[in-house]
Design brief:
Blueprint (H helix, E strand, L loop, with lengths): L1 E5 L2 E4 L4 E8 L8 E6 L6 E6 L6 E3 L7 E6 L4 E6 L8 E7 L14 E2 L3 E6 L1
Parallel strand pairs: 2-11
Antiparallel strand pairs: 1-3, 3-8, 4-5, 4-9, 5-6, 7-8, 9-10, 9-11
């Protein structure tokens, strides 16, 4: 399975941005998917996760109410809608996929990772 993240860029505080993650290869293996991010000089952190069906999601407290995760299994694509962006959201955002089906906020449980897309939010 290969994951390709896109949609990052430079925006101003308060703006919105939507990230996409296209999956290819043996996509039938994919269950839960998620987004993580890594700011410069910091460890990678969990952002959001979604079940295979898309009916259950979970977001980190730092983005709750501003970010939403969704997926379109027919297109093999994962999304992260980011609203009311803040400078502290600046990071490289990574999509990840798990062959299991339970929600997960833990990096080690994900089997596949995309290459990352950079989001910069200016104040």
């Amino acid at each position: 399975v290969q994951l390709q993240a896109s949609g990052g860029g430079l925006v101003q505080a308060g703006d919105s941005l939507r990230l996409s993650c296209a999956a290819s290869g043996r996509t039938f293996r994919l269950g839960t998917m998620g987004w993580f991010r890594q700011a410069a000089g910091k460890e990678r952190e969990f952002v959001a996760t979604i079940t295979w069906s898309g009916d259950t999601t979970y977001c980190a407290d730092s983005v709750k109410g501003r970010f939403s995760i969704s997926r379109d299994n027919a297109l093999n694509t994962l999304y992260l809608q980011m609203n009311s962006l803040k400078p502290e959201d600046t990071a490289v955002y990574y999509c990840a996929a798990d062959e299991d089906y339970g929600l997960s906020a833990t990096e080690i449980e994900y089997d596949y990772w995309g290459q990352g897309t950079k989001v910069t939010v200016s104040s």
